[in-house]
Amino acid sequence: MSEPSKDEHLLINIVTMFTQQAWVAMGKLKNPITEKTERNLQEASFYIDVLDMMKRKMAGNLSDDEDKFLDSSLSGLKMNYVEESNKPEPEASEESDAEAASETDGAAEEDSSENGKAEDDETDTDDSTEDTGEENESDDSGKDE
Questions:
Q1: Cα gap 123→142, rounded to integer Å
Q2: How far is residue 107 from each of residues 10, 36, 68, 104, measured CA to CA in Å?
Q3: Pairwise CA distance, residues 131 & 114, whole Å
Q4: Does 101 score more than 80 pLDDT?
Q5: Which pLDDT belongs to residue 88?
Q6: What is the torsion angle, in degrees rounded to the nearest 10, for the CA atoms of residue 83, residue 89, residue 93 and residue 99?
Q7: CA-to-CA distance for 38 and 26, rounded, in angstroms?
Q8: Nearest alpha-carbon partner for 20 in 10, 6, 30, 34
Q9: pLDDT of residue 72
Q10: Tens digits of per-residue pLDDT, 12-47?
Q11: Widest distance between CA atoms in the chain
Q12: Which of 27, 29, 83, 132 could form a disulfide with 23 if both were Cys (CB 3.0 to 4.6 A apart)?
C-alpha cells in the first residue's frame, strides 16, 4: 500500500469536517463553540447530502481507501440520522428548563447540606439559638452564609 497523497489527505479532512458537523447537528456531539448539545436535523441532512453528492461526483476517481472511508462515514451518518428523525423533536424551552432545574436542584441540595451543618454548629456554640431554634430554622431561607 502506498503513502496517501496530499489530495487523499485533503479529501479525508473534508469528509471528516462534514461528518463531524453532521454529528453535531444530530445532537450526537456537543457543539464546540457553544459547548451545548443541539439538534438540527435539517442541517444534519444538508451535510449528509453534501457527502452523498461528493461520492456521486467523484465516483471512479477515488482510491479504494478513499471510497471505503467515504462509504463508512456516510453509512454511520445515515443510520444515526434515521434513528434521530424517528425521535420526537425536543421542545427547546422544556430542554433548557430541565437543564436549569437539574443545575438548580444540585445547587440547592449543596446549600441545604451546608446550611444544615452551619445550623448545627451555631446551636452548639450559641445559647440564644437553642431557645429559638425552631424560629431560626424557618427564617433560614433568607440567610446568606
A1: 18
A2: 47, 20, 49, 5
A3: 22
A4: no
A5: 83
A6: -20
A7: 7
A8: 30
A9: 96
A10: 999 999 999 999 999 999 999 999 999 999 999 999
A11: 88
A12: 29
Residue 137 and residue 121: Cα distance in Å, rounded? 13
pLDDT of residue 5: 87
Residue 135, pLDDT above cutoff 60: no
Q: Is the pTM of this model over 0.70?
A: no
Higher pLDDT, residue 69 or 109 = 69
3-state secondary structure 86-116: CCCCCCHHHHHHHHHHHHHHHHHHHHHHHHH
Count of residues for the chain? 145
SS3 (DSSP) at 62: coil
In angstroms, the CA 28 to CA 37 distance is: 7
| Dihedral of alpha carbons 58, 63, 64, 70, sign | negative
Three-state DSSP at 53 gives helix
Q: Which residue has the cell 434515521?
A: 82
